[in-house]
């Protein structure tokens, strides 16, 4: 087991100009049980310099845990996810696709991975080791089981909201707000809730419900606590 260096998307704003114009899309990939096992990510270099990139997949040991920990291996079957190519060069203005192939199907609950797209120092040479810089992207990839269910159990104690996902797949709580009037609302930050995960947050007010949008395999719906 090893830890990846945390490569936050926000760090690109602070990166050197040579790496400031790399984009990765989409930044989140999801695989449904009955869907195709292959998907693509698009990389684009909008800078005036060539970018030499390394791409690596790592299994998230416990999705939702902070900090995240990872399992890596040079053997894709041991990680459960294949990314190809592993190294590439993007010339100025060039776009290239990364193929992402799911090798392990979840049985009872979600499996999740991170794909790091990291600029490297010097030219890419598959015969030699490379030195990674501390900037780049970390895309999220997850696969849902055949029976994907989000089951949220919530408890309110004044301003403290505690939510547990007792289901089999993750759901994203977002666009949260507490409103005294339709024109007077306070925004509330949400969270992606993985199976078995408990999340606790402090609300702005203790005497009114909070509304979120829940995005899960069934679509988007409003949920109140």
Strand/helix succession: EEEEEHEEEEEEEEEEEEE
pLDDT below 50 for ≥5 consecutive residues: which ranges? 1-19, 123-134
Helix content: under 10%
Can you tell me the CATH superfamily of the largest domain?
Answer: Immunoglobulins
Portion in strands? over 45%
Return the structural class: mainly beta
Query: Biggest β-sheet: count, sense, barrel?
Result: 6 strands, mixed
Top-tier CATH class of the largest domain: Mainly Beta
Q: What features would you describe in this structure?
A:
The chain is an all-beta fold. It has two domains: 9-143, Sandwich (Immunoglobulin-like), CATH 2.60.40; 152-224, Immunoglobulin-like, CATH 2.60.40. The chain contains one helix and 18 strands. Strands 2, 4, 5, 7, 9 and 10 form a six-stranded mixed β-sheet that branches. 28% of the residues are buried.
Q: What would you say about this model in short?
A:
It contains 1 helix and 18 strands.
Secondary-structure topology with pairs:
Blueprint: E1 22-25, E2 28-31, E3 38-45, E4 51-60, E5 70-71, H1 76-79, E6 81-84, E7 87-90, E8 95-102, E9 111-119, E10 137-143, E11 152-157, E12 160-165, E13 171-181, E14 184-188, E15 191-193, E16 198-202, E17 211-216, E18 219-224
Parallel strand pairs: 2-10
Antiparallel strand pairs: 1-3, 3-8, 4-5, 4-7, 4-9, 6-8, 9-10, 11-12, 12-16, 13-14, 13-15, 13-17, 17-18
Note the main attributes of this structure.
single chain; 225 residues; mainly beta; Immunoglobulin-like; 2 domains; six-stranded mixed beta sheet; five-stranded antiparallel beta sheet; 1 helix; disordered N terminus
């Amino acid at each position: 087991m090893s830890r990846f260096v945390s490569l936050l998307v926000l760090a690109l704003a602070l990166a050197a100009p040579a790496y400031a114009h790399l984009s990765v899309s989409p930044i989140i990939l999801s695989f449904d049980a009955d869907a195709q096992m292959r998907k693509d990510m698009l990389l684009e270099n909008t800078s005036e310099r060539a970018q030499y990139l390394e791409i690596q997949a790592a299994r998230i040991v416990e999705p939702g845990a902070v900090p995240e920990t990872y399992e890596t291996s040079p053997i894709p079957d041991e990680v459960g996810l294949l990314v190809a190519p592993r190294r590439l060069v993007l010339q100025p203005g060039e776009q290239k696709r990364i193929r992402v192939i799911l090798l392990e199907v979840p049985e009872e609950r979600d499996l999740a991975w991170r794909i790091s797209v990291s600029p490297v120092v010097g030219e890419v040479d598959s015969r030699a080791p490379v030195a990674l810089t501390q900037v780049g992207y970390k895309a999220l990839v997850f696969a849902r089981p055949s029976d994907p269910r989000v089951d949220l159990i919530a408890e309110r104690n004044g301003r403290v909201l505690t939510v547990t996902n007792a289901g089999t797949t993750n759901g994203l709580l977002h666009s949260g707000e507490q409103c005294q009037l339709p024109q007077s609302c306070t925004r509330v930050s949400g969270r992606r809730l993985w199976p078995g995960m408990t999340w606790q947050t402090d609300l702005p007010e203790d005497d009114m419900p909070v509304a979120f949008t829940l995005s899960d395999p069934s679509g988007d719906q409003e949920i109140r606590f």
